[in-house]
Amino acid sequence: MTATLRKMGLCVNHKKVLRIMRQNHILSKVRRKKKKYINGAESMVAPHRLERQFDASRPNEKWFTDVTYLLFGERTLYLSTIMDAFNREIISCVISESQTLTLAMKTLKQAMRGRKVKDVLLHLDQGSIYTAKEFQA
């Protein structure tokens, strides 16, 4: 919250922001890291081709994708995005109630819609939805 206010041009102390949030009962919950589990499904780990060269010389040369957790009280939603490395534009975003292969595929299909995407390099983490055989195909 403090960082957002500072980006808006306000000079605020993090302790003051915390105090005001407490007074208005709008504190966020601290969430614990969930345990990782292996469901036994076979996965494929992709080779690392980017070699820390994150800049792109043209649009649709390199894309980055990831899934973010959004907590709304007791409800969790998943935001899947794809960003073009050329201009850092978010070219696709999909929200779902579950983090599944379908979420990743919808995001990728949305990004490809209406774009000339020949030989685009899609950089992603090695999460379970991205290492599934169906996503790699």
TrEMBL record:
> Which keywords does UniProt give here?
Plasmid
- Which stretches make up the Integrase catalytic domain? 55-137
What does this protein's UniProt record list under function?
Answer: Involved in the transposition of the insertion sequence.
- Presence of the UniProt keyword Metal-binding in the record: no
| InterPro entries tied to this protein | HTH-like_dom, Integrase_cat-core, RNaseH-like_sf, RNaseH_sf, Transposase_IS3/IS150/IS904
The domain of life is: Bacteria
> What PROSITE patterns does this protein map onto?
INTEGRASE (PS50994)
Tell me which Gene3D superfamilies the record gives.
Ribonuclease H-like superfamily/Ribonuclease H (3.30.420.10)
Reply yes or no: does the keyword Transmembrane helix apply.
Answer: no
Pfam families for the chain: HTH_21, rve
Q: What is this protein called?
A: PXO1-129
What is the species listed in this Swiss-Prot or TrEMBL entry?
A: Bacillus anthracis (anthrax bacterium)
Write one Gene Ontology MF term: nucleic acid binding
